[in-house]
Amino acid sequence: MSVYAPHKPRYLILELGAAIACLILTKLAFDPIAWRFSGPMSMACTIAFIALMARLRAETWSDFGLRGLPGLKAKLWFLPQVLLGMVAIMGAGAVVGLSGDAMGLWDMDATPSGVEDRFAGTTGNLPRYLMWLGLGIVSGGFGEEVFFRGYLMRRIEGILPASALRPVLMVILPALMFGAVHFYYQGLRGLVTIAAIGFAIGTLYLLYRRNLWPLIAAHALVDSIGFTALYLGVEV
């Protein structure tokens, strides 16, 4: 029997606020120690918090989108869903990035200084490349998708009353926060671009009947392509 299982909106709001506070405060705490890794470290703490709350609520990881692939049809659709996810991520990023460049909001040919500082020394450095590749897959692909899609969308659904607007807000609000947490090293361009990517992923998450695995794989693969290009010194 669950020790703590209040599912009324006011309790969900408190828990959601605590999860967001955990993400922000641990990020701030780790910044002076190792700012390059403070994002993955704070995400690890937040996932641990989610795991604790899920246990107290008698929830399982499948409630947050980590579901199996029952039946042959689901297994056959997995790879196309992953590929569609990759196209959505890269397409949303490219469209928003180029649109902002055309409007003079930023220069697509210039790499944000925070990105250069954070990943400095990765080009041609195999150990550093493998480190960032692993962090991209685990913290980016898995951690961010569990938190921003699986967890946030589920909690927002529990807080908001049933209406035609609820699915829209379930996608938009996590997408905005997804963009905001990348602002500290990617600036305005990163905030807007990553928010657009979050909107695309969130929409697919609902279309995929809340199965997160194809989107975790898509996110991890896109990050892997980016880090591999950086290691090889190739512009993407």
Biggest sheet record: none
Mean of all residue-level pLDDT scores: 93
Supply the number of helical segments: 8
The helical percent reads over 70%
- String of helices and strands: HHHHHHHH
Shape: globular
Q: Give start-end ranges of low-pLDDT stretches.
A: 1-5
- Whole-Å distance between the termini? 51 Å
Multimeric state of these chains? single chain
Q: What is Rg? A: 18 Å
Secondary structure class reads: mainly alpha
* Strand coverage percent: under 5%
Number of strands: 0
Structural notes for this entry:
By secondary structure, the protein is mainly alpha-helical. It has helices spanning 9-34, 38-56, 71-102, 113-118, 126-159, 166-180, 183-207, 213-232. α2 (38-56) runs parallel beside α5 (126-159). The longest helix is centred in the middle third of the chain and has 34 residues, at 126-159.
List its traits.
mainly alpha; 8 helices; 0% strand; globular; 236 residues
Detail the topology: elements first, then pairings.
Layout: H1 9-34, H2 38-56, H3 71-102, H4 113-118, H5 126-159, H6 166-180, H7 183-207, H8 213-232
Brief sketch in words of this structure:
The chain is an all-alpha fold. 75% of the residues lie in helices and 0% in strands.
